[in-house]
Amino acid sequence: PLDTTPNECPCEKDVTWQPWDGTTELQNGKYYYLTQDVVAPQEGFTIGSMTVSLRLDGHTISSPGRCFWIKTDGKLNICDHNTRGKLIGTGVDGESGGVIRLYSGSGTVNLWNIDLMSDGDNTTAAKEGGICSVSGKLTAHNCTFSGGYTTDKGGTFQVSNAATLRLFDCTVEGGYAKNKGGNMTFSNKRKQ
Q: Distance between CA 164 and CA 66 in Å, rounded?
C-alpha cells in the first residue's frame, strides 16, 4: 500500500542541537545545526551505519562533487525551520548522485524545507541522478529540486533497485538528462 504519512521533522523535536561548521566528523545519534556555510569534499560527507540530523539554519552546504553519500544503513535527516538552507552540488564525473547519493537499499534520507540544486553542466556532471540517486528511501517535505544535469539519465532523480521516493509539497524543475528522463528515471522496480 502507498504510504502517504509525512515524517516528523526533527526541527520540531525538543533535543540538544550541537553547532557544526563542517570541520568535525558527524557522530551517530547527534543533532547538529550549521554555524556557517560549508563546503563538502568532492565525494561528499559520508553517512555510514549511523543516524545524523542536521539543521541548516539558512546556510548552504556546497560541493565541487556531491554533498552527501549515504552508505549501508545510514540515515540522514536535513531540515530548516524558519529559513531555507541549500544543498548545491556539481556531481562526480562518471558516478551517480550530484547532490545526494543514497547508495544502499537500506539507507534513508529525510528532507524538510530546503532547496537542492545541481550546478553540473555538460563538462562536469553526475552520470545519473543530477540531484539525487536513490537506491534506498528518500522522503522530502516542502523542498525544491532544481537544475539537475546528467551525462546519462535522470536529470533530477535516478530511482532504482526497489527504492522508494516520497515527495510532499515539493517542486521538481529544470532537470536535463543527455540520454533519457529529464527530471526522473525509474528503473524496473516499484514507484511511490
A: 21
